[in-house]
From TrEMBL:
<keyword id="KW-0804">Transcription</keyword>
<keyword id="KW-0238">DNA-binding</keyword>
<dbReference type="InterPro" id="IPR043135">
    <property type="entry name" value="Fur_C"/>
</dbReference>
<keyword id="KW-0862">Zinc</keyword>
<dbReference type="InterPro" id="IPR036390">
    <property type="entry name" value="WH_DNA-bd_sf"/>
</dbReference>
<dbReference type="InterPro" id="IPR002481">
    <property type="entry name" value="FUR"/>
</dbReference>
<keyword id="KW-0805">Transcription regulation</keyword>
<keyword id="KW-0678">Repressor</keyword>
<dbReference type="Pfam" id="PF01475">
    <property type="entry name" value="FUR"/>
</dbReference>
<feature type="region of interest" description="Disordered">
    <location>
        <begin position="1"/>
        <end position="25"/>
    </location>
</feature>
<protein>
    <submittedName>
        <fullName>Fur family transcriptional regulator</fullName>
    </submittedName>
</protein>
<dbReference type="InterPro" id="IPR036388">
    <property type="entry name" value="WH-like_DNA-bd_sf"/>
</dbReference>
<comment type="similarity">
    <text>Belongs to the Fur family.</text>
</comment>
Amino acid sequence: MTGTPAPDDLGPALHSRGLRSTPQRRGVLDAVRALGHASAEEVTAHLAARSAPSPEQGGADVGWPTVDPSTVYRALAVLEEVGLVARTQLDRRVPSFHPVEHGGHLHLVCDGCGAVAEADAGPARDLAAVISSRNDFVVDTGHLALRGRCAACRAQLAPEEHP
């Protein structure tokens, strides 16, 4: 991706496509940025927690409306379309979203415990160049997740189960 949008580019990014900047879209983008990597369900839960009045507020509403999961899904789709969030398949069941300014790394996903770590994408870009030259196929290394086992999970395997 060329040119990472600045964190305050929501309005211009949407307006350039004839779309409006709404509090819901802003809230979803803010939630994705706060969470780093999150599923739509995690974004919804984050926003719902923000809408719940805290005891310090004496039960007063904090100003965020009730969160409808369909609104979160639609907002994520729009934010992805305008290039402010990116989708990665970290979990085999649901996609994860992250802010585009948080890109440029590989996702290392443990099949044992589900932990997600990040690694430099440099080696993947080298591999992508080889694949491109040999197969005329361009690999999107900005959304690459590698599956395997973390050190803690490997330590729990019996010796004959080690790769």
